[in-house]
Amino acid sequence: MKAVGKKISPRFALRVWLSLVVVCSLLLGGCFKGGDGGEQFYGKVVVPGAQEFRWSDGGLPKVFDPARAAAPPDTDAVRALFEGLTDYEPGTLRPVPAVASRWESDDEGLRWTFHLRTNARWSNGDAVTAQDFVRSWQRALRLGERAPHSKLLSNIEGAQSLAAPLQTMAQSGAEDESARVARGAAKTVAPTPAPHAFGGVALDAHTLRVTLQRPDKNFPALVAHPAFRPVHELSVGADLPELREEQTRDGGQSDEAAVVTNGAFSLSRLAGDSVELKRAQSYWDAPSVQLERVLFVDRSDTEGALAA
User: Fold this and answer.
1) N or C: which end of the chain has fewer CB within 10 A?
2) What are the extents of the domains in the chain?
3) Which whole-number Å values give the CA distances from 251 to 124, 246, 254, 255, 260, in the listed order?
4) Nearest-angstrom CA–CA distance, 65 and 168
5) Pairing of strands 52-55, 293-297
């Protein structure tokens, strides 16, 4: 027996379709209404006109020094302001070229040679050289406990000699001559072993050779850490209170010249509740930097950071 279905008229189908549209509109409209006040559920977000990244983790960076930066947000600011021999690829964390365009090592991974870019510049126009890295690493080791990550440099040949605290005459076993005479015998002082030469050597302005105490196949990844980033010889790093004091003396002028940097950003402005970095025109790869500025804000919540 053949089944015969009832044919639906076009007019009836249109009425059903319109009814569904009205119901869906009412339901969707109710999703965006609040309670008694009838306020919209989503607030209005004002998009900044500039390419700006706002950084807020409850505090402001206070140290602008690769050697003395201990933790975020100080290390975050250092990564933006200073560039090392290598950097981390965001997706894999593998070392990628930065100031060094290439590098190679011996078969053991005991001696590494880094070739620096000839167009790498400091924010004051000076060239970034291999000697900048040697001097900065030696400084970090001499700072000792004041450089919280200086132990990362301890595998470099001769690092212990630089990191060892200076001994006083009493500590070295030397005695006052009158005390020796009083005892009737002179004390023999063991000679201090000659320190090993530091393993970081600038072969020329753009070639850095690093000799390690123990082989390290991952040394290019290690030198991407902020502790290995260089500082300019005329700007050994500054603290936020010192910069604010200088800014007050200078009548609130720009702080760009206060810290000489070689990274993608330079220090632009200090305010009471923010630190502003701007894109550095002196950076060797400036055309690839899309952000115009980075703003560290002293806010612990997202709404406060957006409103700052």
Assistant:
1) N
2) 52-161+196-307
3) 21, 9, 9, 11, 20
4) 29
5) parallel
Cα separation, 158 vs 150, whole angstroms: 13
Kindly report the pTM of this predicted structure: 0.72
CB contact set of 190 (below 8 Å; sequence gap of 6+): 173
Bridge partners (DSSP) listed for residue 278: 266, 293
**How far apart, in whole angstroms, are the C-alpha atoms of residue 281 and residue 289?**
10
* Nearest alpha-carbon partner for 208 in 71, 292, 102: 102
Q: What is the dihedral of CA 120, 125, 131, 132, to 10 degrees?
A: -90
The pLDDT value given to residue 149: 96
CA distance between the termini of the chain = 77
Place of tokens 């930065």: 98
Q: Which residue, 89, 151, 111, 126, is CA-closest to 230?
A: 126
In this predicted model, what pLDDT tens digit does every residue of 43-79 receive, in sequence order?
Answer: 555 666 678 888 777 688 988 999 999 999 999 999 9
Q: Which residue has the tokens 């005892």?
A: 183
Residue 307, both tokens: 């409103």
Residue whose C-alpha is closest to residue 99's, from 61, 52, 71, 66 = 66
Architecture in CATH for domain 52-161+196-307: 3-Layer(aba) Sandwich (3.40)
pLDDT at 249: 47
Parallel, antiparallel, or unpaired: how do β-strands 86-88 and 95-97 relate?
antiparallel
Residue 51: other Cβ atoms inside 10 A: 11
CB atoms within 10 A of CB 301: 10
Please tell me whether residue 59 adopts helix, strand or coil conformation: coil
